[in-house]
Amino acid sequence: MSESNNFQDVFDSLKPLLSRHSKKMTVVKDTEDTYYLNTEKNGKNGKPQFFGAVQIKKKYVSFHLMPVYMDPSLLDDIGEPLTKQMQGKSCFNFNAVDNKLFSELKKLAKASYDYYVKEGHV
Predict the structure, then answer these.
(1) Could you give the count of Cα atoms lying within 13 Å of 92 in the half-sphere of its Cβ?
(2) Which domain CATH number covers 57?
(3) What tens digit of pLDDT does each residue of 94-111 get?
(4) Counting Cβ atoms within 10 Å, is residue 25 exposed (0-12), middle (13-18) or buried (19+)?
(5) Is residue 102 a contact partner of residue 78, using CB atoms and an 8 Å limit?
(6) Beta strands in 13-118 (DSSP E)
(7) Residue 22: which domain range?
(8) Over the stretch 13-46, which tens digit does the pLDDT of each residue have?
(9) What is the pLDDT of residues 44-83, one digit of tens each?
């Protein structure tokens, strides 16, 4: 399997982790290589708030999750293997499908969505 196809598999596995929360949010972009989700409610700056995105990059597929930047305690329960995939404060990078890590990331995305609901962003 070529790297680009592999990255498409990674993207296709990660996208549902965000899209399952799209009912009360706005899908900003939904293409073969990018899925971008904002809140419908405006934040303090008068603009919708970024929730998350999945993007195919040159060397990996990135999974962004803004609530973990806003409340780092959301990361307290993630395991070291998922922590090793982090780049920065709210981005995880993958170059292969890893169902165990993706299952953990699914729980983190749900906790992040719940945090946004609790804070009144959704």
Answers:
(1) 30
(2) 3.90.1150
(3) 999 999 999 999 999 999
(4) buried
(5) no
(6) 25-30, 34-42, 48-56, 61-65, 86-87, 91-94
(7) 3-118
(8) 999 999 999 999 999 999 999 999 999 888 888 8
(9) 888 899 999 999 999 999 999 999 999 999 999 999 999 9
Cα distance between residue 54 and residue 92, in whole Å: 10
Non-local CB neighbours of 94 within 8 Å, separated by 6+ positions? 10, 14, 60, 61, 63, 85, 101
Rounded CA separation 42/86 (Å): 28
**Number of CB atoms found within 10 A of residue 47's CB:** 10
The 10 Å Cβ neighbour count of residue 50 is 19
Q: How many domains does the chain have?
A: 1
- Identity at 6, one-letter amino acid code: N
